Amino acid sequence: MPAAKRPSASWALALPPGRRARARLCLRLATPLAFLLLLAAFLRTQPPPAAPPPAKPFAGPGKVAFLFLARAGLPLDFLWDAFLRNGDERRFSVYVHSAPGFVLDRATTGSRYFHGRQLARPVKVAWGEPTMVEAEKMLFAAALEDPANQRFVLLSDSCVPLYNFTYTYTYLMSSPKSIVDSFVDKTEKRYNPNMSPVIPKDKWRKGSQWIMLIRKHAELVVDDKHVLKVFRKHCKMIVTKALLEQKPNARRLGFVFRRKQILKGVAEKEHDCIPDEHYVQTIFSTKGLEAEIEKRTLTYTSWNQSTLDPKDKMTWHPTTFEYDTSSPEHINAIKSIDHVNYEVEHRTEWCQCNGTSVPCFLFARKFSYGGAMHILEDGSLGLQKSAQLLVNF
């Protein structure tokens, strides 16, 4: 006799073939769906994870992080070596953003304070490009890895200190605020309406890129992504043939230009924007934190005064202090400045530190090798004479 067939589920056999296949699919999906529903219900009944405990305040002497934005090497390292040598190594750290591939070692610097202090993965910086801001952020990020760093000073490779280490350290650590040059310049046309709504026009600010940040503000700048994204897209310097002719040594010095083909008459319609003069200032403005900063800079710059025509782009560049213009009389004149006038805002900023009147500037730029040598020889910073200090250079 033929073997009896195994009976199938009567309800399934009763379905037409097409509906029978859909029924099998529903059965296969039902089990994982039920599991996901049960898991979601379980998670809703669990208490939220406890917030991480607040970070313990750093115990010990805080450090000042000196952050150098350099083209390649540090031509004034001999002066900074003298400045740091007269300080306490527990109270400072050094970081350098230099050209990719450049290494600070015995062959490129005579100062041990700079050996190996270049960032491991620098970016190729282009003048007037967001890469300048990216390099600054990288310096702040590297310095934040050391919890002892409490003050962060951004410096150029042509900056010099105006005071000895002890005075500089005390000044910086006494300030509860960041020191960020920031103002509204209604005469300039760098703001691009396409930056809104991330950056409203009334939050657009301008100022010197040479700033000092306290730790929480350095973290704020490093964590920012939204404002930087807008700057990458809408804040770029328009490079014209005339501007290239004004900076003939730019490529030799390590900065490169992004060239644009600009039709005649179009340049005036574009938004000439220099990111490093706006980025940090605009972050504080958009975050509503301007009350937490001293709205000035610590670094003195003498701008070209050969013409008063704002259309003359030669006035955009600082003058260089040579040997004869770096005498004690010139340096003392800078050190005596106790206020800054912001004519575009009809504001006078009287320089203070924690409510106490102080000199405005701790640093100055741009100094040539000879200008820095004059400062060292004069000994006005409480430094040793150059003949003793230059043995290792």
Oligomer: single chain
> Per CATH, what is the topology of the domain at 63-299?
Spore Coat Polysaccharide Biosynthesis Protein SpsA, Chain A
| Major beta sheet, strand line-up | 2-1-3-6
Give the second-level CATH assignment, the architecture of the domain at 63-299: Alpha-Beta Complex
Catalogue the unreliable spans. Answer: 240-270, 385-391
The largest pleated sheet is described as: 4 strands, mixed
Strand content bin: 5-15%
Number of strands: 13
Which features would summarize this protein structure in a list?
about 400 residues, 13 strands, 3-stranded mixed sheet, 13 helices, single chain, disordered C terminus
What does this structure look like?
It is found in: Membrane. This is Core-2/I-branching beta-1,6-N-acetylglucosaminyltransferase family protein. Residues 1-45 form the signal peptide. Keywords: Glycoprotein, Glycosyltransferase, Membrane, Signal, Transferase. InterPro entries: BC10-like, Glyco_trans_14. The chain has helices spanning 10-13, 17-44, 77-85, 131-144, 165-174, 215-223, 226-234, 241-246, 250-253, 279-286, 328-335, 369-378, 386-389, and strands spanning 63-69, 92-97, 149-156, 160-161, 178-179, 212-214, 293-294, 299-301, 339-342, 347-350, 352-353, 356-357, 363-365. The chain has a domain at 63-299: Spore Coat Polysaccharide Biosynthesis Protein SpsA, Chain A, CATH 3.90.550. It is elongated, with a radius of gyration of 30 Å. The model is unreliable at 240-270 and 385-391 (pLDDT under 50). 33% of the residues are buried. Strand 11 (352-353) and strand 12 form a beta hairpin. The protein is α/β, with parallel strands linked by helices and 393 residues long. It contains 13 helices and 13 strands. The strands form five sheets. The chain has a four-stranded mixed sheet.
